[in-house]
């Protein structure tokens, strides 16, 4: 009888330990849970705040990512920044982002910036970007001309 009571006690104790460990693991998992994924609106809002940041590094990094991820909704802000920027290196980063956006408005502003700039280093950089634009446009034109010819021949 004594052994039976001891066995029941150990059994109840082991069940309590199992339940406690399960509840602690759930609490631990909830505390280490990753944050909910941000919505696209939140991400875009964060980029907008970063472009207006007082922190120079954050601002220039955001400019680079706007171009890299082709976020054309910030095109007007980049154009404004390009027109107001005095630092040559920062102007190059902004110009590269505008080039990566590839819109007609961005190319036009890049060309205007090239024509109005007096900085030879910046003009040389923009000249290279504008030359790449011309090459890309030429390739794109050839591709679409070939596509149209092939479509007509296949009929």
Structural overview:
The protein has 7 helices and no strands. Helix content is 82%, strand content 0%. With 155 residues, the chain is mostly helical. The mean pLDDT is 84. It has one domain. Helix 5 (88-101) packs antiparallel against helix 6 (104-116). The chain is elongated, with a radius of gyration of 30 Å.
Keywords:
elongated, mainly alpha, 155 residues
Q: Helix and strand succession?
A: HHHHHHH
The number of helices is 7
How much is the average pLDDT? 84
**Tally of structural domains:** 1
Q: Quick one: biggest sheet?
A: none
Alpha-carbon distance between the two ends: 96 Å
Class inferred from helices and paired strands = mainly alpha
Q: Report Rg.
A: 30 Å
Q: Tally the beta strands.
A: 0
- Helix amount, in percent? over 70%
Envelope shape:
elongated
Low-pLDDT segments, ≥5 res: none
Strand content: under 5%
SSE topology sketch:
Blueprint: H1 2-31, H2 40-51, H3 56-68, H4 75-84, H5 88-101, H6 104-116, H7 120-154
Give a short summary of the structure.
With 155 residues, the protein is mainly α. It has helices at 2-31, 40-51, 56-68, 75-84, 88-101, 104-116, 120-154.
